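sanity check this:
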Amino acid sequence: MLNSIKIIKNRSDIGAGTRGSDMGIDAIEIAAINKNNNYFEQFEFTDVSTANESIYNKVKNSFAKRIDSVLIQCTRLSNHVKVTLQEKTFPIVLSGDHSSALGTISGVKAAFPKETVGVVWIDAHADIHSPYTSPSGNIHGMPLAAALSEDNLEFQINEVTRETSDLWERMKNVGILGPKVAAENVVYFGVRDTEEPEEKQIKNLQIKNYTVSEIRYRGLEQCVNEAIDKLSNCDVIYISFDVDSMDCDMVSYGTGTPVNKGFDQQEVTQIMNQFIETKKVVCVEFVEVNPLLDLKGNVMAETAFEILDDVTKTISKSL
């Protein structure tokens, strides 16, 4: 049983194709200050060392850019999450780009090696590429594939180097050896921007994606209850929230890969809160706020903070 909350700040953006998400945590903190909210004074916090300087290194692994540095970062984050959970404390992870999720999931699994882990992935993107299938080589599109230990070689489009292959194998073994989660224990919410290799992989692995349109047609509460039932065999659950799951036209373009026709703020909040109320959620993560791309000032970070503040209250009640 977890009995307190700790904020883990991971200002890393080396897995993304666009710089700036490393500033997302500070932008969220500024949003809190501007609302006269003392949120960040209420909880213990820790800062994860970053390897952001590696952005200036020459790219050697073009189908998995800066994979050596991302591996280091995910290992660091995994250790922070593991130790936090072992201390009976609930980690709220605030990260830059979404490659961090591999570290977080690995830390959860390392803390609960004998438990079944469930993953709730709220995102416009499936993030289930591998170096063998990625059209961009940006690792923030690969964390779930690494956590599942899936290469998707059936739809390979890239010939990767031996070095990239070896580093990818190490990525798949961060925290503990082997897969951290089974595909049957992953649920997507809001995925709507995918490439063919991902679409084929999602179909092969039979991962359920609750689209924005399905949720609005069938009802959010019903869909989330259905997803909770789907993950009923999971002992612990991790929620990953990428802000690009929200509608960029409605909310903000302050994220690296904005996509329209997404969720609104209230829908995301309700999805997260409904899962947290099951008392199975042991970690949540917020990613991909990029204030450099925000055309409305700091609206994306402000929206993310409002969700964070609301969700944290639900977490506190569940402890």
